[in-house]
Design brief:
Structural class: mainly alpha
Distance between the termini: 58 Å
Oligomer: single chain
Low-confidence stretches: none
Order of helices and strands: HEEH
Mean pLDDT: 88
Helix content: 10-25%
Length: 73
């Protein structure tokens, strides 16, 4: 215990990575399968990760002001 009578606490953080990809609706299943296959450890580890699937309403390429699909390609 410290001088104030409080116990010291140690927190261990796991390193994490974040990345995002944009695919067409038809490609979602294939993309998810590929990501799962590449990242699953096979031991049910909590650190295998998560996949969040969200709709993208629009995209804008800042340099040209292209919008929609043209901004992504």
């Amino acid at each position: 215990m410290s001088a104030e009578g409080k116990e010291a606490v140690s927190i261990r953080f796991l390193p994490k990575q974040y990345f995002s990809i944009v695919v067409t609706e038809k490609q979602v299943s294939l993309a998810v399968s590929a990501i799962v296959k590449a990242n699953r450890t096979g031991v049910g580890a909590a650190g295998d990760g998560r996949i969040f699937i969200v709709d993208i309403d629009d995209a804008v390429r800042i340099s040209t002001d292209e919008r929609g699909g043209a901004a992504v390609l």
